[in-house]
Amino acid sequence: MNALEMLKKINAMAEFNRWCGIEVTMAESGLVEIQMPWRPEVGQYSGFLHAGLIGTLIDTACGFAAATVAGPHLLAANFSVNCLRPAVGQKFIARARVVKPGKAQIFTSCDLFAVDAEGEKLVANGQTLLTVVQA
Fold first, then answer.
1. pLDDT of 86-132, one tens digit each?
2. CA-CA distances (angstroms) from residue 93 to 24, 33, 50, 118?
């Protein structure tokens, strides 16, 4: 099973990811892209994507990127998110990469883009430290 097939299978098992509408659109060793469409219920009071969902997209993309090099048994040990501008768009794309793989910990980074008729705009970025869990 290749990385994209593995992540699509994992994503389909995650009820929260299904509720969010998260789709894995690209995966190869150390690199992942996921997308989520805009829906009013993922917004905050001003109509922007809620910061909790910004964190969700960054955490999910980073975890999936790590899974391409270490398998799916991972837990987030720490993650940080930088909200750079209001997240407004028709969909959101998170692109994550493994910065430093390891046997016990994997460091990842992610950029989150809002997409509208004018194209992509960087709205947030973040980093995640994931711990490899022995199954």
1. 999 999 999 999 999 999 999 999 999 999 999 999 999 999 999 99
2. 10, 7, 15, 15
**Helix boundaries (H) for the chain:** 3-13, 15-20, 51-70
The pTM is what?
A: 0.96
Mean pLDDT of the 55-78 span: 96
DSSP 74: E
C-alpha angle 104-108-113 in degrees, rounded to nearest 5: 160
Nearest Cα to Cα of residue 7 among 18, 19, 23: 23
DSSP the chain: --HHHHHHHHHHH-HHHHHHT-EEEEEETTEEEEEEE--GGGB-TTSSBPHHHHHHHHHHHHHHHHHHHH-S-EEEEEEEEEE-S---SSEEEEEEEEEE--SSEEEEEEEEEEEETTEEEEEEEEEEEEEEPP-
